[in-house]
Amino acid sequence: MQSNRWLSANSTTANSTTASSSRASSIHEDQQQFFASKEECHLKTNKAFDDWENVLKGLTKPAQIHDETLKSAKLFTQVDSLSNSTTLSMEKTSKLLDRLLDRKLGILAATKDFNDIQASLDVNPIARKHWINQEH
């Protein structure tokens, strides 16, 4: 009966070893599944964050486009007002140049008149005689 006991003790030990190794392997498999599911969860979370980021970027793009449109419109109105002021300045400058041209023509007419008067008086011979007399 003793040998039977030993066999039964051996078989109990073998069964407990098998049971503990199967429990260890079951725990190891559970941990692997946990870590695999944890990694999968992290990947899904990262993907969800990336998706939200893309959605938010998509939502902010129309706002950015709107802001850029407003900036362009403001710059266009500034260019328009600068164009108007430039046009006014050019018109004033043109009028001023016309007045200067009129004055120049008046000055040229007066100079021509002086030349005509000098030619009709024939002052040169008289002036030469005067200078020559003063030298002697």
What report would you give on this structure?
The protein has 136 residues and is mainly α. It has one domain. The longest helix has 120 residues, at 2-121. It starts with a helix and ends with a helix. The chain has 2 helices and no strands. Residues 5-11 have low confidence and may be disordered.
How are the elements arranged and paired?
Blueprint (H helix, E strand, L loop, with lengths): L1 H120 L1 H13 L1
CA(first)-CA(last) distance = 178 Å
Largest sheet: none
The percent of residues in helical segments reads over 70%
Number of helices: 2
Q: Number of DSSP strands?
A: 0
- List segments where confidence is low: pLDDT < 50 over at least 5 consecutive residues: 5-11
| Outline type | rod-shaped
Beta fraction of the residues? Answer: under 5%
Order of helices and strands: HH
Number of domains: 1
Main location: membrane
Protein name: BLOC-1-related complex subunit 7
Biased composition (Low complexity): 8-25
Region (Disordered): 1-25
